[in-house]
Structure formats: structure tokens, C-alpha cells
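WARN no homologs supplied; continuing
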Amino acid sequence: MRCLKGERSVTALHKHPEFRIGIQDMIPVAPGIAAWGLMTGVAMVKSGMSLFEAILMGVIVFAGSSQLAAVPLIAAGAPMWVILATSFCVNLRFVVFSAHLRPYVMHQSFWRRMLSGYLTADLSYVLFTRRFPHPSEDPEVRRAQEAYLAGNCALNWLSWVGAGLLGIALSNAIPLSWGLGFAGILALLGIMCSLATTRLRVVSAGVAGAAAVAAFALPLKLNILVAIAAAVAVCLLLEKPPAPPPAAAAPKGDAA
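OK structure emitted
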């Protein structure tokens, strides 16, 4: 009975006004995501993957950055540990995302949390936390948050996976020289610039970019790992620990 109630509540999310707002907020960046997904689908086939492998990766591995990082390594015949290590490092940001989103979703069932984790990507996370900066205990607010995230993630998933499957189908007709993936890079670049709201974030982006360029000659795209490690190391050195809360003043009557 509880399971059926949960299923009804999930299917009813599309009727909530926030579901449409979530879709509307994703529309401006959806073309860039689709262009990026299209070229990723083409690249997967041209890297030597079979049609079945490309479709399976395109549907299951809903992680654009790690796909783009892994495909050249697969094409170059890199060892499996290098491919896995690169994908792991590229996706480390989702650990931070999940920790931040935990208070928003812990009231949901286990499988709904797993589905939210699979569907939530960079842009979904950014747009969701902008609209709902703080979690809430109010059931109506929680419902609105779930509906917004569902609409946002639905369009994001369809834009990426649908375009990726189209790229796989048209891989022989679309040359990589078109460079449509650059549209996706521009979309992420715009989001990154909007997130650079503190000096530390600006420094981390600059350090990562500089390290990636400086280490570009490394084989197997290892410059990505160098960039991530350099940015994390510098930020850990520069980040100041939070100041301890001020001690409460002792009552005058307690003074010796």
C-alpha cells in the first residue's frame, strides 16, 4: 500500500506548477547540452565502440564530463585503471552535490533517492539550489522542490540522452570536425562564470585551467587529473577554517 502511494505521488509531480517552472529554467541551456550530447554520441562510435556499447553507455552513464574524458582514453587503448581513475576524479564533484542535497531528499524512499542521484546533473543542481537555497520541513514546500527538480532533470536527461542516441545513429553522417561539442562547453562555461561568486572559486577555476594547459602534453589525458589535484590542493591551502563562535559572556553575578 505504501509503495502504491509513493508511485502515485511520483507520477503526480508533473501536475505541480513547479514542474513546468523547472522545465522553463532548463530550456535556455538545453540546446547547448543537446549539441554536446550529439557530438559525444558521434565520438563514442568513432572511437571504436560497438553500436550496442555506445547505446548502453549513452543511456546508463548519464555523466557528460566523464563520458567525454573516457571516450578518448578508450580510443587510445588506455589501461582500465586510467579510465576509471579519470572518470572517478571528474565525477568527484557529485559527492559535494549529494552532501548538499541530502537534507532535501532524505524524507524520500531509498529508490527515489537513487533515481534523484542518477538524474541530477551539474545544471540541475545549480538551478535547483538557486530556486530553493534551503531545505524545508513543510510538506508543501518539499512537494514543490520535488516537482521542480523532476521537471528540470527530465528535460536535462532528454536533451543529453536523446541527442546522444541521435549522434550514435548519425555517426557516419556527422563529422567530428563540426565541433558541435563546443556549444556544450560554452553552456558549462557560462554556468561556471555565474558560480564564481567568491575569490576562492575564481582562484580554483584559474588554477585548474592553468594546470590543465601546462600539463597538456601528458599522455592519456592525465592533464585532467593534474588540474583537479592542483585546484584542490591550492584551495585547501588557501581556505580559512571557520571562526569559532564567540563564547557567551558570564553573568556578572558569577564573577569572582
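The mean pLDDT is 81.
OK
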